Amino acid sequence: MSLEKFLNQAVSSWMSAEGPDSDIVLSSRVRLARNVRDYKFPIVFSSEEGQKIIESVYRSVEGQHFSTIGSLELLVMDELQPLQKRVLVEKHLISPNLANNSVLGACILSENEEVSIMINEEDHIRIQCLYPGLQIAEALKVANEIDDHIEQHVDYAFDENIGYLTSCPTNVGTGLRASVMMHLPGLVLTHQMGRIVPAINQLGLVVRGIYGEGSEALGNIFQISNQITLGKSETDIVEDLQSVVAQLIAEERSAREALAKTSNIELEDKVFRSYGVLSNCRIIESKEAASCLSDLRLGIDMGYIKNISKNILNELMILTQPGFLQQYAGGPLRPDERDVRRASLIRERLNLEQ
Amino acid sequence: MLCQECNERPATLHFTKIDNGEKTMMHLCQQCAQEKGEAFMLNSAFSINNLLAGLLNFHNHVQQAEQPPVVKKEPLQCEECSMTYQQFIQIGRFGCANCYETFKEQINPILRRLHSGDGTHNGKIPSRIGGGLHLRKNIETLKQSIQELITREEFEKAAEIRDQIRSLEKQLDQRDEGGN
Predict the structure, then answer these.
(1) How do residues A94-107 score in pLDDT, each as one tens digit?
(2) A143 assigned to a ligand binding site
(3) Pfam families from the xrefs (chain A) (predicted)?
(4) How far, in Å, CA of B143 to CA of A51, rounded?
(5) Quick one: which of A225, A96, A42 has its CA closest to B91?
(6) pTM greater than the 0.80 cutoff
(7) How far is A257 from chain B (nearest CA, A)?
(8) What is the pLDDT of residue A3?
(9) In which element (H, E) is residue A181 found?
């Protein structure tokens, strides 16, 4: 069964492949919010309406084979086990909101997991494209293609003056949210994030932790995205984000250089201590794991550690989440059991490298 | 009652979370609550929707202060999905596309503030349903270029563009007739 494949082949292409600037940018994501004309939005619609939305969206892409992403499969939330949904959330393929709170929620997922079309989340349609490294423009291009394709069959709620109409007014206009996941240990270690975050906010961009709104910056991973969706064109939004990301990449690189110059041995010590913890621990909490994985990845990027592949951070950050650990164990686990599992999974994964 | 996270231990802690007017109950055991604890304490405090609700409320208060409540007006309500403005303020989300029309006067100034700028869509236009709009935008740009050509005294080119505009306008007329 192909769902099994989705869940068991834990590593999606955005986690394993390497993209441009992937020493700092882990992934790029673009999301387009769309609604169908003459249907009430998911927060108030009838189940009949919800069902019709799923059918008409799925019909518009069913059997289509998009050149770059492969074939598409429909997953209906009510038919999935809680654990399966949790795994999809941890892989960033669906939102927690779709998994837990949606009525008649569904998701159309591409074979390579780069594209997921969420149905009946906050809006009727949310097209999401996820790519490794800094590839926002590429992600936008693919999202636009799918959008054009759906639009041939579905009438969108659109207004001449305020653009695509969305349930929440913070998305109206382009319905576009572009975001980039960045690993910024250098800026954190040199205590610069406190200065940088307000500056980024001033430019109409938001900085958040790895699992979105309100989440902590686990493992020095930050998510940067646009806030403004109305008034600017899609290209302008993406270019503005890209230019800020480019500056952050430059600042992170110079912070790393400065660290190497001023406290090389301390940094090397920190990296190898974390490496030691990860390769020997028998119990590890997710917070500690995230911070050690961040150190390890920094060590790989800076050349202290040579025999480990770079994507270990992206991979293990996802694979050590509670849902995945339980999937890996084949059943529910208590938090203390999870910490043991997490430790053994990390050790096993590191062993594969040798 | 069993803990809804692990489904093993009895639930000893019961949380009621009210998020954007939606009430959710959680029944957890000590262990699961501890693990989830940080996540939901953080989540509830500060989200875009809460910020938005704050902005909407603020707007409301200012209006009330300016106009003393002499006459009590009928609460504004959307005809399509029967959402009221009060409900919208609480949830931070609209019930249907028509709400944007119903609450136009209230929401437009807020949109301008939320998105900084003039509050007009400047991005993609759906190709099929936005067809007429595409033509109109094209005509607008062509008209602008005609002015430039005239000031540069390139009359032949200007004439070509004029013909283009005429044919586009014809298409637009036919479209509007066909639509009605």
Answers:
(1) 999 999 988 899 99
(2) no
(3) ATP-gua_Ptrans (PF00217)
(4) 46
(5) A42
(6) no
(7) 34
(8) 43
(9) strand A176-183
